[in-house]
Design goal:
- With about 210 residues, the protein is α+β, with helices and mostly antiparallel strands.
- Helix content is about 20%, strand content about 25%.
- The chain is built from 3 helices and 10 strands, in the order ββαβααβββββββ.
- The protein has helices at about 40-50, 65-75, 85-100, and strands at about 15, 30-35, 60-65, 105-115, 130-135, 140, 170, 175-180, 195, 205-214.
- The strands form 2 sheets. It has a 7-stranded mixed sheet.
- α2 (about 65-75) crosses α3.
- The radius of gyration is 17 Å and the shape is globular.
Length: about 210
Amino acid sequence: MQPRLSLDTPVHWAFGQEIEVLPRIFDDDITLAVMQRRLDPALTLAVRTQLNGTRSLDWHWRGAPGQAMREDLERRLPAPEAGAALVEDVGHIAEAMAYLFSAESIGIRLRTLEGAMCPRFHVDNLPVRLVTTYAGPASEWLPEHAVNRAGLGAPHPDKPDIVADPDAIRQLAVGDLALLKGCGWVGNEERGLVHRSPQPAAGERRLLLALDPG
């Protein structure tokens, strides 16, 4: 969901339905680039099947995206016999990430969550991360005008609220491919995108993919 703006609100995000929107993350003023997409029926079914079992998923990979990565993920799925569409989607995203950032190695994590992984608004101390939610509530983020950066960091009674405008909180959609620029990006040290993990409803499971280049 894109925020409503006043005429004097600077835009630091880019949304689009084609993959060409993702390289906008290299623009100096952009801290969020999102390719909006809907999961196709085969992928939706593969995701639902993984979440229907009792075993959770917490898969890590660091290395080149390719066949070895796909085979490792397939072995780790709760229902590998029904996971082909999910494995291929993760593989395609990893390959696109490696190409975009000229990275030989990608750090990947695919995990199921029943609670908020990072419930407090924060910034990442790394250059960039790609996140996509396959099921459950997707990540929330704040436009810069709604952020009080003095409140970031470890909680303390003397710190102000991070959220200067609660009505400005925005949320990605299931399936969106979102590149989040962090404070480790050269030239963006004070402008990392402020975001958080949402709290799933009782009994709801979330499936989250996160990728870091390098």
